[in-house]
């Protein structure tokens, strides 16, 4: 196991997974426009079998389970045990016995029986070797099946990222920028490269549709700032910051978000790609 892969598993089974679990309702609200758009494009049908890569706490898996009905099946896979435990509890509470969840690495692990549809909401950008990973996923899709996933457009198109990043960098030292194609939230932002990776992995008819929305970051500027610091892209850098540094970031970020309140909530611009391909 490489250092990058080990780092991802450690993070999502520790701080990353725990903070997501504690803020599950907030995160699902924040990402709701993208979950909606993903499901429109994926359009799971009654009776279909669906694989959800990087399913997290289960939001998209549960939506798919409702769509496929009792005659269908949904298998959610993730590397985060705490997130999967919450996903299982949510499925049980909703009476969706057709949804099951398991720990797995889509890059290399066996992913169960062949499916009709693969979906992912921001769960595929962390692959160390995307071609190998997408090849493994394709091997678990029936002939004629399809894949639809959401990935982020570049940082410059995502205010929810650069507003906090710009402020945090004034108070906290950040490491040098990583390789833009390294595993991470924006690894697939270069959409032409991403479509090329899918083609190289054996997928057909790869294409992408842009989608933009204003995300609900909370009712108050303080709520929004705290959420970005706890679960946003600056959270890992702030984990090692002093209390004085965190207080300074919170103050400045809260002040900046005051100007972003629209109709009773902090609303920040965000943009993604909806990518689809055929097996």
UniProtKB/TrEMBL annotation:
One of its GO terms (molecular function) is methyltransferase activity. The keyword Methyltransferase applies. Coiled coil: none annotated. Residues 46-150 form the Methyltransferase domain. Keywords: Methyltransferase, S-adenosyl-L-methionine, Transferase. One of its GO terms (biological process) is methylation. InterPro entries: Methyltranfer_dom, SAM-dependent_MTases_sf. This is Methyltransferase domain-containing protein. It comes from Pyruvatibacter mobilis.
């Amino acid at each position: 196991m490489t250092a990058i892969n080990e780092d991802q598993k450690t993070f999502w089974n520790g701080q990353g997974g725990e903070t997501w679990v504690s803020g599950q309702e907030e995160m699902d609200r924040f990402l709701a426009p993208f979950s909606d758009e993903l499901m429109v494009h994926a359009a799971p049908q009654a009776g279909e079998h669906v694989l959800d890569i990087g399913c997290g706490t289960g939001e998209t898996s549960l939506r798919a389970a409702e769509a496929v009905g009792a005659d269908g099946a949904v298998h959610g896979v993730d590397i985060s045990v705490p997130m999967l435990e919450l996903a299982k509890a949510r499925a049980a509470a909703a009476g969706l016995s057709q949804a099951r969840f398991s720990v797995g690495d889509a890059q290399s692990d066996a992913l169960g029986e062949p499916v009709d549809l693969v979906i992912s909401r921001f769960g595929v950008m962390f692959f160390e070797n995307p071609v190998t990973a997408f090849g493994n996923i394709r091997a678990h899709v029936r002939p004629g099946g399809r894949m639809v996933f959401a990935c982020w457009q570049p940082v410059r198109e995502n205010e929810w990222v650069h507003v906090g990043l710009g402020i945090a960098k004034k108070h906290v030292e950040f490491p040098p920028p990583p390789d833009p194609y390294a595993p991470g939230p924006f690894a697939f932002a270069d959409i032409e490269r991403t479509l090329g990776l899918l083609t190289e992995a054996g997928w057909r008819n790869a294409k992408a549709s842009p989608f933009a929305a204003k995300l609900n970051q909370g009712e108050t500027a303080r709520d929004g700032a705290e959420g970005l610091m706890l679960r946003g892209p600056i959270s890992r850098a702030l984990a090692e910051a002093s209390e004085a540094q965190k207080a300074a970031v919170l103050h400045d970020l809260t002040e900046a978000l005051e100007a972003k309140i629209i109709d009773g909530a902090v609303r920040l611009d965000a943009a993604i790609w909806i990518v689809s391909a055929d097996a």
